[in-house]
Amino acid sequence: MRWLLLVLALFALPAMAEVRDPASHFFMPKLGDFKGDLDAARQEGKVGILLMFELDDCPYCHRMKATILNQSEVQDWFRQHFLIYTVDAKGDTAMTDFNGKDTTEKAFALEQRVRATPVFQFYDLTGKPTARFTGATQSKEEFLLLGRYVVEGAYKTMPFNVYKRQAGK
């Protein structure tokens, strides 16, 4: 009888969201040419490019990856709308910025005024910065709302906190 109750209890539990490695399911492999990535984003029908500026020892970056960016729902939704890359805010890796200028990740982060991490910076299909969120979101729902804020173009008329309040979050 106990066995039957255990089986029934397991079926009554809500389905858990699938958890996947964000390195391979959220972020795209970097080629280091953001100008070229703009062309790819346009060809793929994306809204733009999302960069996550991070540091290896950043606890908030790790928390985002371990609790939000690893969720299949988040990964699938963001990959549908954006090309997504990481940028090491102290990295010496060579790269090409959105204007075709050769630089390093560290110099690019400074140019983008990254002072704390994580920074989620969205860019439109011309390479122009649109919306920015510094720090870790409170939840998966808030991060998805941030994405919708950009996709819907609400960043053009209101700050994210107003959009979030209007959405009842």
Automatic annotation (TrEMBL):
Gene3D superfamilies for this protein: Glutaredoxin
Residues making up the signal peptide according to the UniProt record: 1-17
Pfam families for the chain: Thioredoxin_2
Domain of life according to the entry: Bacteria
Entry keyword annotation includes Repressor: no
Entry keywords, A to Z: Signal
SUPFAM superfamilies: Thioredoxin-like
Keyword Signal among record annotations: yes
Domain spans labelled Thioredoxin: 17-156
Protein name: Thioredoxin-related protein
Taxon lineage: Bacteria, Pseudomonadati, Pseudomonadota, Betaproteobacteria, Nitrosomonadales
